[in-house]
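Consider the following input, taken from an annotated entry for Probable F420-dependent oxidoreductase, MSMEG_2256 family (Klenkia soli).
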Amino acid sequence: MLLDASLTSADDPAAAASELEGRGYAGVWASEVAQDPFLVLHAAALATTRVSVGSGIAVAFARSPMTLAYTAWDLQRYSHGRFVLGLGTQIQAHVERRFSMPWSAPAARMREYIGALRAIWATWTDDVPLRFRGEHYRHTLMTPMFTPARHAWVPPPVHLAAVGPLMTRLAGEAADGLLAHSFTTERYLRERTLPALQEGLDTAGRSRADVQVSLPGFVVGGRDDAERARAAAAVRGQIAFYGSTPAYRPVLELHGWGDLGDELHALSTSRREDKWQAMADLVDDEVLGTFAVVADPAEAGAALLARFDGLVDRFSIYPGTGVPLDAWDPVVRALA
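Applying the prediction step yields:
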């Protein structure tokens, strides 16, 4: 199981990526939350030589497949073949109201989106005429002036973020990787995610080895009581935030915590000034320990392997807990 890290909150992504590579991490990821992940990854690619650099995730439906095909092509060139294109759908409200882009059945649109990307790349690599015609996207024009120069690397792998069964099956059918959501558990991965992934693999005549599964997971730990308390508070808040979202309710329901989802959602839509703290207070130790590996850095590597080895291929510690980077060096050594 490879250990990755997030660059999302880095003020200097080049320096952060270089440090992470030096510490032995296998890959770095940037998410599209309040920044453009590709600018972060460009800086990271130029500052490193070994780690993979991936978007985890970029919002696919905020862009045309052609726009994204150019960006991914360039990042694959600048990284010398180390780029991973991680895509997600976001939700309807954000796609329509934040990005002002069309929304429709997300799994069907994403299937077509991946097909369009690969058709465009095939035109650039194999001189295949561009003749992609779908329900949502049409790409039928590519002239020499707008064809990028070839480089020494194949088009980047496409990883797909998925929570529900439709998107997870699609990852098995059409993607090179599955980006599991942080709001998941060992049981949900084992009983829901991986069986749906296998259904997609079977449909496409592929094997589990054809798809890399990545998980940005919660870890609660620290080198003293103050660090442990800060990490626990941060993770409780993140679990509460995700748990209030109806799209993630099936994870809670699998564990018999549907009522918790109702309470969290009701609080999230209330006008209480202290609603976020009140939501975090609902995440008790049992819920925390189910969603997060609770272990100090010296033991966290073994705990991660015990929980996720054989289920996921890559793991990254969810950022924002306030624990210094060097505290996790024992985890890097344990997973190396």
